[in-house]
Amino acid sequence: MQRRARGKSSDKGEATPAPVKRSLLRRRVIILFCSLAAALTIISGQLFSLQVFRYSELVKVADGQTSRRVPSVSRRGTIYDRNGRELAISLATSSIFARPSQIENPERASAALSAALSLPAEKIMERLRAGKSFVYIKRSASAEEAEAVERLMLKGIGSDVQGKRFYPKAQQAAHLLGFVGQDDQGLEGLELQYDTYLAGKRQWVMRQQDAKRRPIFREEAGEAQGSDLHLTIDEVIQYITERELEAAVSQSGALSGSAIVMDPSSGEILALANYPTFDPNVHAEASAFARRNRAVADYYEPGSAFKAIVGAGALEERLVRPEDRFNGEGGAIEVGGVTIRDHERFETLTFAEVMAHSSNVGAIKVGQRLGKSHYYDYISGFGFGNLTKIDLPGETPGLIRRPKEWSALSLASLSIGQEISVSPLQMLTAMSAIANGGNLVRPYVAKSIVAADGQVVLENAPMQVRRVISEDTARTLATILKGVVTEGTGKAAAVEGFEVAGKTGTSQKVDRATGRYSRHKVVASFVGFVPVEQPRLAIIVIIDEPTTLRWGGSIAAPTFREIARESLKHLRKTPVDREPFRLAEGIRNAAFRLN
Amino acid sequence: MRAQSIAAWTSVGRDRASSLLKPRIDQIRRFDLLQSLVLGGAVLVVVLFYVWQHVQVVRLGYEVEYLAGERAAIIQQQKELRLEVARLMSLRRVEEIARGQLGLTSPKSGQVIVLE
Questions:
Q1: Which of A53, A301, A564, A567 is geometrically suited to a Cys-Cys bond with A507, CB 3.0 to 4.6 A?
Q2: In degrees to the nearest 10, what's the CA dihedral of A583, A584, A585, A588?
Q3: Separation of CA A252 from chain center
Q4: What pLDDT is stored for residue A78 in this prediction?
Q5: Could you tell me which chain B residue has the CA closest to the CA of A147?
Q6: Exposure of A282 by Cβ count < 10 A (0-12 exposed, 13-18 middle, 19+ buried)?
Q7: pLDDT at A394 > cutoff 90
Q8: pLDDT of A322 strictly over 50
């Protein structure tokens, strides 16, 4: 009622006079202004404090909340064969890691991770309680699993993207390719040799993210991918070599075997195989013996195959001619108080027949004509006792003593390939020198390295180390070695439609228990090249400790033949007795397009 | 009296002058108001543009990240497929299928004709 009355009186204009009204309004305006000014002052002060005094601290907090340092995916380069077929590929995979000291509730974290990663929670707990500052919870996790972990937003848990190496052809070229470790670093073979080129550069980029950890911006990362490696290896020849070597080792009940195929003119390795072998995808499961690249890292006594070297020296020094005759001494000769026998009784043999039938007596006589000093020069000249400098790790230089350390028996022993140890690769490189006209070439496996942007980083070209023998000597020796295959111990190496030259070898192994040559343990080998005119392939086959077929001519030579025949077919080499089929232009174009 | 008449005259003059100036003052006031409105509008537009720009940048950032993720996934998928192709083209596998399932054999030397 009172209010009403007051209202009424107000309506009648009886209440407040105008000056009082103005004064009231002014007071209110002043109060409002002061309030606003006070609020503005407080806000400004606060702003000033935040922007000036606490600037650095708050910027750090903001950066920590909105920015994240993430690794850019670093992928190893791909390894290709000479025809661009992939032999090793890397894919990006995630690894989930933990920093246990930062985890507030390990039980809850392991339960959440268990659900996200399909791992037993107990196993995760075990890792978190291992007392380490950094542990991997799961390696090679899928992208979905990594995303699920990210969504959990657990403190102390993170994911890291890494490249994982895959070898799609499994065992193929395993000893050449080698393998990588857990952290994608090269551990063996080409992976180790060219690790600096193949490995991608690990880079970290800053990523801005929102409250839900969704990325908003990312700094442009530089190229993190490693360079691609292009090999001289031909995948098909590699496969043929591995297949035939495996068959030979199995057939002869041997301990192991090695085989190498090389282009004798350039030194390009077309195939390199060892058996037993391994799968580089699961290299940890293989024994050290299976993983060892025995064709390069191990040495053996070459035996009769080394007669080609003494023959080369004697021919080059013009101390023998192919038709020179040697007395076979009825199959035995005594040197330094030791009787050295032939595998059969020979009466008289020409120098060419000494080689063809692999006469020990004949070879010793040739060696004696050549003499210690010259022979040693040729042994060294052909690269024995030195590294071939192939681009593979773990190469052995072999074992050769200097002439002053030789015994009365040494010259004779060396003439038949004893008292010297060589690697299969050295023996093949020496035979390649005979095949290509007398030049020792450096063998190599990597043809080129191409960066991710297409730039050629490294290119290997054929390299002549030195001339060892003249072209004439090489040609004469090639003809003599052809006789080994046509009428000598290496008949099983003959390839229909092609001329083959080579030398068999069957060397006794030293028995470690007695320190003497074993009667049962031998190394059977064949080393040669094909075709004799314009050689395309130089091949060596070594069979270690065969139990059934124990001669180089009976197990290594047939393996050589199979590798050579199939490889020549693959290389489209026309047999000498057959004319290539010439297609009409249009059909030929269509046929090659289909290829 | 004289003073009064002068005052009256001055008052009349002032009123007269005031009535004459009023439209001009109103015009100026309107212009000022318009100017203020235009200026305020311009500031508002600039502020809105600035905010819109930021929103757009963030939106595009999300889009770029999404597309970058998709691109990475496609590259990864392509690599996986290449790996699978390489695995399937393994000569050991091909030979096993050729010999075991298809009953093929290696051609004899006379059965191979090199095309030139």
A1: A301
A2: -40
A3: 29
A4: 94
A5: B69
A6: exposed
A7: yes
A8: yes
pTM for this model (two decimals)? 0.80
For residues A530 and A568, give the distance between their C-alpha atoms in angstroms, rounded to a whole number.
9
Contact by Cβ (8 Å): A294, A276:
no
Query: Which two three-digit tokens encode residue A550?
Result: 């124990």
Measured CB to CB, residues of chain B less than 8 Å from chain A are 58, 61-62, 64-65, 68, 72-73, 76, 79-80, 82-84, 86-87, 89-92, 95, 106, 109, 112-116
Q: Tell me the sheet residues that pair with A208.
A: A67, A217
- The confidence score (pLDDT) of residue A329 equals 87
pLDDT tens readout for residues A216-240: 776 665 557 899 999 999 999 999 9
* Alpha carbons A272 and A238: distance in angstroms, whole number: 7
B109 Cα distance to chain centroid: 68
Q: Tell me the nearest-neighbour CA distance from A402 into chain B, angstroms.
A: 46
Average pLDDT, chain B: 85
Taking the C-alpha atoms of residue A475 and residue A479, their distance in angstroms, rounded to an integer, is: 6
Residue A308 has a pLDDT of 96
- Give the count of beta carbons closer than 10 Å to the beta carbon of residue A56: 8
* Neighboring chain A residues of B65 at a CB cutoff of 8 Å: 214-218
- Which position among A304, A410, A415, A432 bears the catalytic label? A304
Instruction: Give per-residue pLDDT as tens, B7-47.
Output: 666 666 777 777 777 888 888 888 889 999 999 999 999 99
The answer to whether A169 faces chain B, any CB pair under 8 Å, is yes
What radius of gyration, in Å, describes the C-alpha atoms of chain B? 46
| Positions of E strands within A99-156 | 135-141
Q: Provide CB contacts within 8 A for A423, sequence distance 6+.
A: A295, A296, A297, A298, A299, A300, A388, A395, A396, A398
As beta bridge partners, residue A98 has: A135, A157
Structure tokens at B70: 């998709």
Give per-residue pLDDT as tens, A106-164: 888 888 888 888 888 888 888 888 888 888 888 878 778 888 888 888 888 888 777 88
- Residues from chain B contacting residue A582 (CB–CB below 8 Å): 115-116
Q: Which two tokens stand for residue B62?
A: 């999300």
A83 touches chain B (CB under 8 A): no
At position A244, the amino acid (one-letter code) is E
pLDDT tens digits for range A72-88: 667 899 999 999 999 99
Which one of A68, A83, A91 would you mutate to disrupt binding with B, by most B Cβ within 10 Å of its Cβ?
A: A91
Q: Which residues of B touch A497 (CB under 8 A)?
A: 109
Question: Which of B76, B80, B91 lies at the smallest CB-CB distance from A239?
Answer: B91
| Whole-angstrom distance, CA of residue A462 vs CA of residue A429 | 13
Of chain A residues 95-134, which have a CB less than 8 A from chain B? none
Residues of A in contact with B89 (CB under 8 A): 85
Mutation for testing the B interface, residue in A78, A85, A87, A217 having most B CBs under 10 Å: A217
- A517 interface with B at CB cutoff 8 Å: no
Least confident of A66-80, A285-299, A483-497: A66-80
